[in-house]
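thought: fold this chain, then report.
action: predict
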Amino acid sequence: MKTILNVIWLVLSGFWLFLGYLLAGVLLCVTIIGIPFGIAAFRIGVYALWPFGYTAVERRDAGAPSCVGNVLWLILAGWWLAIGHIVTGVVLCVTIIGIPLGIANFKLIPVSLLPMGREIVRTDQPFTATAGTQRTGW
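observation:
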C-alpha cells in the first residue's frame, strides 16, 4: 500500500514539492553560511518526494544551534515551503482519492517549518540513529 500511495503522491504533488525543496537548497547553498540549511532542504526534499513509509522524529542531542537554525530557516525558506504544502494539501483534499495525500501534506508542514534537530527514519524504526548509540552507563 505504501508503494501505491508513494507513486500516486509522486505524480500528483511529490515531484513539484521536491523541485521546490531543490530550488531552496540550491539558493541556500550559494553562501557558505547557508550550506547546512541547503543540506536540510535536500534531506526534506527527498522525504517530500517519497513520504509514505518514513517519518520525522526529533533528535534528543540537538541543542541551541538547531533552535537558532530553525529561526533562520523559518525566515529564509520555511514559510514558502509550508505555504506550498498547505496549498497542495487543500487542492488534494478536494477529491476523495486525494484526501490521504492531502493529510500527508499537512503532516509535512511542521518539518518544513522547523527542520533542524529532526531526522527522517523509516516508520518501522521510529527512533533516531543516535538514540540507539547513547551510553547506558555500563
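thought: worth noting. Confidence is low (pLDDT under 50) at residues 132-138.
final: C-alpha cells above.
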